Amino acid sequence: MLKSFRKPLHNMEPHYISENTLEKKRRELGLSHFVKLGFNENPYGPFPSVISAMRQELENLNRYSDENFLEVKRLLAEKFQLDIGFIAISHGAENMLQTLSKCFINEGDEVIIPKNSFRLYQDYSKIMGAQIKLTTLKNYKIDLDKIINEITENTKLIWLCNPNNPTGTIFSQDELIDFLNKISSDIWVVVDEAYAEFVNDDKYPDLSQIIQNRKNVMSVRTFSKAYGLAGARLGYVLANREVVAIINRVSQPFNANRIALAGAKAALLDKDYFEYTLNELKNNRNYLMKSLHNRGFNVVESHTNFVFFEGQFSAKQLQERLLKRGIFVQAGDGWGYPQGIRVTVGTWGEIEAFLTGLDQVLQDLTT
Question: Which residue in 347, 345, 330, 351 sits closest to 118, CA to CA?
Fold first, then answer.
């Protein structure tokens, strides 16, 4: 049976613990619910204004989403001070990553990917038949110099995650510009900025400006994280208008649903509630990092809505024991960190539940 599928699919592994696997675990353990701190969802979304807008849109589901589709693009153009022709919308950021793979990768093309990063870059590149080169991180941060050293005349595309998932680290505007100046403009550079809204650092790159002068660079973003619309599945790309024209050829027509677009429009307009949720999450993030540091863990400074840390115990072991206590986090072994844990920044109550569960697990492991 397997021989009937495309060859790149034969050796691909499932993408960490899925929602279905988690629900199965919950039933097996006899738990009423999990404290879900593994998918980097925003516990403060959807915004009240967003829920209202989405409900009102229900009666229009018999029509395609042309008006709101253009309105969301207009609001994004205003947000990033770009012409509307620099923006393309998709069914979630993952769908845009897949679309970009279809646009740029031919079978046999060389693609460079940081090893300890979002796994879908490898998956989509493999599906397209790419030859993949993996580079290691330096101090949990994407090492742009190592990527430069791996570039050959066959290199077609480079995937970058900034802030990086799962480590939460960033590279700066100066570092990115220096990197781009050293590589050929014929190499496509895709920067996944799913967590960009959570960054406080003034040195963080401004891709909305960079893409206007560099046709080979693009930024992929999402409404899933900071805007609290993970279940609505809406993403977008900022890219040169010539690139957007190609993306639109590959994308489906009306490739976003009316309810998601109505929610995105409301979220972009509700700047006060957006700022409120960001402030809450940043305060909770600081508390979580400090609490983990006080427990002796090696905590990586986070620029996202999750925190990555390492300790002396197996990440898989910690994950399984926390699951039995009704708390779900992601083990880092799939990213090359067998003692690393990625935990979502939740509400204050969710963080306290996680820390209490973690203390119990640590006590069990040390006695």
Answer: 330
Nearest to 250 by CA among 84, 71, 126, 128: 128
Cα dihedral 143, 144, 145, 148 in deg (nearest 10): 130
What φ, ψ does residue 317 adopt, rounded to 5°? -65, -45
Q: Position of tokens 């990092």?
A: 289
SS3 74: helix
- Contact call for residues 291 and 358 (beta carbons, < 8 A): no
Q: If the chain, 367 residues long, is cut into consecutive pieces of 10 residues, what is the mean pLDDT of each piece? A: 66 62 81 91 97 96 85 96 96 94 96 96 96 98 98 98 98 98 98 98 97 96 98 96 93 85 97 98 98 98 98 96 95 95 98 98 92
What are the structural domains, with CATH classification, of the chain? 2-44+272-366 (3.90.1150.10), 48-270 (3.40.640.10)
Q: Long-range contacts made by residues 317-323, C-beta under 8 angstroms, separation at least 24? A: 317/365, 318/358, 318/361, 321/361, 321/364, 321/365, 322/354, 322/357, 322/358, 322/361, 323/25, 323/29, 323/34
Give the CA diameter of the chain: 62
CA distance 98 to 124: 6
Q: How far apart are CA 322 and CA 329, in angstroms?
A: 8
**336, amino acid identity:** G
> Which amino acid is present at 146?
K
Q: Are 248 and 239 in contact (CB under 8 A)?
A: no
